[in-house]
């Protein structure tokens, strides 16, 4: 193989995409693996990242454009090369078409044979000559939205039913925009203002989050190599996710259970507020994830406030007596449909049946947790999905089975969406540019 081509950003992006699409690899993990072993400059690393996430975000649209140009399904990597090229033609204005075409032909020649090169050349030239076929040719409204926003039809139908078509249009646009990095300030060690200053001294520009009181949005700079990160003054966490802990109404001496805790972001956030005799018990079903929790809270210098346990949250009765905790956080397993900006490939792997099955698991976890909460205590239920069967419907089913609980209105420090009529809080990806998230606040009254 031509080593220059093999080590080029587009070739590395193609290899990464092919592993994600064909092997089911997670995009973020596969991309990190690719970049870690590359010798690319920062600008080229950004191009690889843009290509990987861009193709995954727009996959159904790109496939719709490709379909009339090929008689049969190409080899997986050739198809991915077409999708990647189409994405650059239509979505990357600063990249000239000739450069995209030239490099795609070189990759086809290097990875394939003369026939592959000719095939790729012909399809790309036809696409540039004819342009993409119009989505308006699709008459079915759900299919059209599916192609336009690259969302499976079942998901489009669910979201329209639950939120209405105008909201789905906004969600579709939001999830296909680049994700930004956000940080949570470790208030056990520093303040928001001090961190902003220290990051600025390291050449990192941030702005305060409009969503979370402890949150910062990164505008420029390498946070993970900064002293502020290395010293545990900040940790990477989405703005929406920070709100679950804000809602717990923590007191410094609280005994807290974080029921589904890995990788430990919310565990660390809870621990930072337990300045008295408080303690947080963090559970996860997997042993390796328990170690991850321990590493994360150690970096934040909060290990003395945390106990990490390997346990299925549905089996909590094996370990803890009833009324052991003042507060419980159930950040439940979910379909992750609020994370489509960061993990675009999951939209293609999930089904409506998956979401319905998760509802049962979520309800089982809440049922198991209920007796462990002290009377008057608060249990926060949160997910990173926007599907109501995993959110409101789970809360309603729990309350129906547990008259000893009542639903409180979820309150955040920045009074997010306080004018809403419902007591639960749903943040859509289109609301603030953060992840989609749901929070329900439950209080045990007897």
Features:
446 residues; alpha/beta; eight-stranded mixed β-sheet; 20 helices; 12 strands; 48% helix; globular
Report on the architecture of this protein.
The strands form 2 sheets. Strands 5, 6, 7, 8, 9, 10, 11 and 12 form an 8-stranded mixed beta sheet that branches. The chain has helices spanning 3-6, 9-23, 27-36, 42-57, 59-66, 76-91, 97-111, 114-130, 141-149, 153-163, 165-175, 192-201, 227-230, 239-246, 265-273, 287-299, 346-349, 352-369, 392-401, 429-432, and strands at 182-185, 205-208, 215-220, 234-236, 255-258, 279-284, 306-310, 325-331, 373-383, 405-408, 425-427, 437-444. α10 crosses α11. It has 20 helices and 12 strands. With 446 residues, it is α/β, with parallel strands linked by helices.
How many angstroms does the end-to-end distance come to?
Answer: 71 Å
Number of strands: 12
Rounded mean pLDDT is: 94
Describe the main β-sheet briefly: 8 strands, mixed
The helix content is 40-55%
Looking at the chains present, what oligomeric state does this protein adopt?
A: single chain
Structural class: alpha/beta
Q: What would the principal axes of the Cα set say about the shape?
A: globular
Q: Helix count, per DSSP?
A: 20
Rg calculated over all Cα atoms: 24 Å
Strand content: 5-15%
- pLDDT under 50 segments (min length 5)? none
């Amino acid at each position: 193989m031509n080593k220059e081509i093999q080590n080029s950003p587009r070739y590395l992006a193609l290899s990464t995409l092919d592993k994600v699409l064909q092997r089911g690899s997670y995009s973020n993990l596969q991309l990190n693996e690719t970049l870690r072993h590359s010798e690319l400059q920062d600008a080229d690393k950004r191009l690889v990242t843009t290509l990987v996430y861009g193709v995954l975000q727009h996959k159904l649209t790109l496939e719709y454009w490709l379909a009339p140009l090929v008689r049969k399904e190409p080899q997986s990597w050739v198809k991915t090369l077409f999708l990647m090229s189409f994405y650059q033609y239509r979505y990357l204005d600063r990249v000239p078409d000739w450069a995209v075409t030239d490099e795609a032909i070189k990759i086809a020649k290097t990875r394939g044979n003369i026939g592959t090169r000719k095939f790729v050349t012909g399809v790309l030239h036809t696409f540039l000559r004819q342009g993409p076929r119009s989505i308006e040719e699709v008459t079915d409204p759900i299919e059209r939205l599916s192609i336009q926003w690259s969302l499976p039809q079942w998901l489009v139908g669910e979201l329209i039913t639950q939120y209405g078509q105008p909201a789905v249009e906004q969600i579709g646009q939001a999830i296909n925009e680049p994700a930004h990095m956000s940080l949570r300030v470790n208030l056990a060690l520093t303040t928001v203002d001090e961190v902003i200053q220290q990051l600025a001294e390291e050449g990192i520009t941030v702005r305060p989050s409009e969503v979370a009181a402890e949150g910062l949005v990164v505008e420029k700079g390498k946070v993970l190599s900064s002293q502020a990160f290395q010293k545990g003054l900040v940790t990477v966490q989405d703005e929406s996710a920070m709100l679950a802990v804000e809602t717990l109404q923590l007191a410094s001496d609280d005994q807290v259970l974080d029921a589904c805790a890995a990788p430990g972001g919310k565990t660390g956030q809870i621990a930072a507020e337990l300045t008295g005799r408080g303690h947080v018990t963090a559970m996860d079903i997997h042993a390796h994830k328990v170690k991850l929790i321990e590493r994360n809270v150690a970096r934040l210098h909060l290990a003395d406030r945390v106990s990490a346990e390997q346990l299925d949250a549905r089996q909590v009765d094996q370990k803890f007596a009833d009324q052991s905790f003042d507060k419980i956080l159930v950040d439940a397993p979910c379909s992750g449909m609020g994370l489509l900006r960061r993990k675009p490939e999951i939209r293609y792997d999930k089904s409506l049946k998956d979401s319905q099955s998760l509802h049962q698991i979520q309800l089982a976890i809440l049922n198991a947790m209920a007796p462990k909460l002290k009377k008057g205590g608060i249990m926060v239920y949160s997910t990173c999905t926007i599907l109501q069967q995993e959110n409101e419907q789970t809360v309603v089913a729990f309350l129906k089975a547990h008259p000893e609980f009542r639903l409180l209105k979820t309150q955040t420090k920045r009074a997010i969406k306080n004018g809403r009529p419902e007591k639960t809080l749903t943040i859509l990806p289109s609301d603030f540019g953060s992840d989609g998230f749901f929070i329900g606040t439950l209080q045990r009254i007897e």
